[in-house]
Specification:
Helix content: 25-40%
Shape: globular
Oligomer: single chain
Distance between the termini: 63 Å
Number of strands: 4
Number of domains: 1
CATH architecture: 2-Layer Sandwich
Order of helices and strands: EHEEHEH
Number of helices: 3
CATH topology: Alpha-Beta Plaits
Strand order of the largest sheet: 2-3-1-4
Low-confidence stretches: none
Strand content: 25-35%
Length: 127
């Protein structure tokens, strides 16, 4: 049997335009600082939602040494438009000298939820 007799996989359609929503990852050393950051980001409409996950263990190199720390993981839902202001606010609020902040494009999801993220992060008073 030659290679041409195998069924071919259907081609995926080209990706559509990128969505405006992001998932940002940030860690915090304790619950109190994680809550302070989450409250400020949502209150200031820089994030629609921040989920706090306790019990994350981070292993990292800092100032030439391998470190290990128990941290809180923040899952921050926001938009591309709000990321620059969110970045500045995290740096202002965070107790770490160099806080983790990683933004990941959301490529798909429940449309009603993604629309809600966009609405809740729009600048100005709540709609």
């Amino acid at each position: 049997m030659n290679a041409l007799s195998y069924p071919r996989r259907p081609r995926r359609p080209p990706p559509g335009p990128p969505l405006s929503t992001l998932l940002c990852l940030c860690t915090s050393p304790d619950r109190a600082s994680a809550e302070r950051i989450a409250d400020a980001l949502v209150d200031e409409r820089l994030a629609a939602c921040v989920s706090l996950l306790p019990g994350a263990t981070s292993v990292y190199r800092w100032e030439g040494r391998v470190e290990r720390a128990e941290e809180q993981q923040l899952l921050i839902k926001t938009t591309h438009a709000r990321l620059p202001a969110l970045r500045l606010r995290v740096v202002e609020l965070h107790p770490y000298e160099v806080p983790e902040l990683i933004a990941i494009d959301i490529v798909d999801g429940l449309p009603a939820y993604l629309d809600w993220v966009v609405r809740e992060t729009a600048p100005g008073p709540a709609p």
